[in-house]
Structures are given as structure tokens and as C-alpha cells.
Amino acid sequence: MLQFFNVTKIYPGSIKALSDISFRVDKGEFVFLVGASGAGKSTLLKLLTREEVPTNGQILVSGKNIVRFRGREVPLYRRKIGMVFQDFRLLPNKTVFENVAFALEICGLSGKQLKERSMYALERVGMAKKADRFPAELSGGEAQRVAIARAIVNNPMLILADEPTGNLDPDNSLAIINLLKEINYTGTTVIVATHDAFIVDSFRQRVIALKDGKLVRDEESGAYAG
Ligand SMILES: Nc1ncnc2c1ncn2[C@@H]1O[C@H](COP(=O)(O)OP(=O)(O)OP(=O)(O)O)[C@@H](O)[C@H]1O
């Protein structure tokens, strides 16, 4: 489903964030991307969302070289990816329902279908009953559930989560990763960047470890530390 070929990313100022990275993730896999702060995890995710382009190397997603995308290809590609962030990034002046529906509106959906699909996504994350609340009225765990509903409402092929448990306590962290696992069971590929050792050790999934921009470990059923 996605493949990195010898990807290097050098930011202005000669900062080498990623160095000669190659790996492949198949459809339906669940991957923890681990590494200390500054190891290059966010850069790798930004290459996948096409917020950044590699300095060298190629990235294939669903058979397409995303490095070569031009113009309209980029927003169309991004619609197929669900993003989840540490700080939730919900729109404060929109309700829970509106936050999720907004992702569909951008794609031109309206009316009954928009309502049904938004409510179904909220049901999947257990937040339908709070559809009319505003983000400020939610706990961190609830806010992250809504963010996940927003990420899945378009039926993405890929979910990228950048430190999704960074603002949550251990119980909520487990619940959020369990939710991402449930979504993964339905065939969506999931990549979670994290430095939460407790989470990684609890779930024992594939682990790709970065250190100083290099891929230093790729293990099935891995632990946080090698
Ligand atoms: N836009 C940028 N311009 C210049 N340097 C950058 C930029 N973004 C990241 N870097 C640098 O690239 C390296 C990798 O950063 P990155 O954010 O990918 O690491 P990370 O593993 O996600 O860290 P964290 O867990 O703290 O988010 C770091 O040295 C960082 O300072």
C-alpha cells in the first residue's frame, strides 16, 4: 500500500531529518513509528501527507508516486488520508457534529448523506450522544474520539496519527489505541507515531524505530525499546 525508496529529507540549514529510509507497509497493517524527540517521526508523516517532499528518494502510495503530484492531485490525495494529532485540532466554534461533517462538506457532500455518514462516524467512536456539544465541553479522551471520527468519516485508506495519546492519561490512551485498532480491523492501514512506551509495549504491533533520522529497527510484534 505504501513504500519509501531511499528517502532523505534535508531541511533548509542542512538539517538532515531523515536519512536513506526504505520500508514498505501493506494494506491493513498497523504500525507504531517510534523514536526520541527529533528522530524524524513527524517529518516522515509529513512526507506521507505531502506537506513536505523528500530531498532524495521516492514514495509510492497505492501505486502512485506522491512526490511527483502536481496541483489538484495533492488535495485529492489528502482526502484519502485521515489525520489525528496530539492536540486534537477541533474547530472550537463548531459543534462535535459540525467538526465531523465539515470534512465531508469539503468534498462536496450535503444533506441526508452528510448527516448519516457524520453520525455513523460519531457512533463508531462512541460520541454520537455528544454531537451537539462544543469542543471546550469535552474531556481530552472525548476530543480525541471526535478527531478520530473526523479522520474516518471519508473512509480513508490510511490513517496517520502523530502522538495521538500525548495529551491523554494511560486509560484514555489505551482506549484511543484500541479504537484505532478496531478501525484497522476493517481494513484501514494505520500508522501511529509515538514515544509512548507504555502504549507500544501494551499492543505489540509492528514497530519501525527511527534514531537521528535513520531507520534502526523494523520488527513484527515489537516493543518500544529494541
Ligand atoms: N520545518 C523544519 N525546518 C527545519 N528543521 C526541521 C523542520 N521540521 C523538523 N526539523 C528538524 O528535523 C529533525 C526531525 O524532526 P521531527 O519533527 O521530524 O522529529 P520527531 O521525531 O517528530 O520529533 P518530536 O517527537 O519532537 O515531534 C529535528 O532535528 C528537527 O529540528
From TrEMBL:
Pfam family membership, one: ABC_tran
Biological-process GO terms, alphabetical: cell division
Domain of life: Bacteria
GO CC annotation: plasma membrane
InterPro entries noted in UniProt: AAA+_ATPase, ABC_transporter-like_ATP-bd, ABC_transporter-like_CS, ABC_transpr_LolD-like, Cell_div_FtsE, P-loop_NTPase
Subcellular location: Cell membrane
Major localization listed first in the record, in broad terms: membrane
Residues covered by the ABC transporter domain: 2-225
GO MF terms, alphabetically ordered: ATP binding; ATP hydrolysis activity; transmembrane transporter activity
Topology term for the membrane: Peripheral membrane protein
Keywords linked to the UniProt accession: ATP-binding, Cell cycle, Cell division, Cell membrane, Membrane, Nucleotide-binding
Keyword Membrane on entry: yes
Subunit and interaction comment: Homodimer. Forms a membrane-associated complex with FtsX.
Matching PANTHER family: CELL DIVISION ATP-BINDING PROTEIN FTSE, IMPORT ATP-BINDING PROTEIN
Family membership: Belongs to the ABC transporter superfamily.
Known function: Part of the ABC transporter FtsEX involved in cellular division.
Name of this protein: Cell division ATP-binding protein FtsE
Organism: Carboxydothermus pertinax
Gene: ftsE
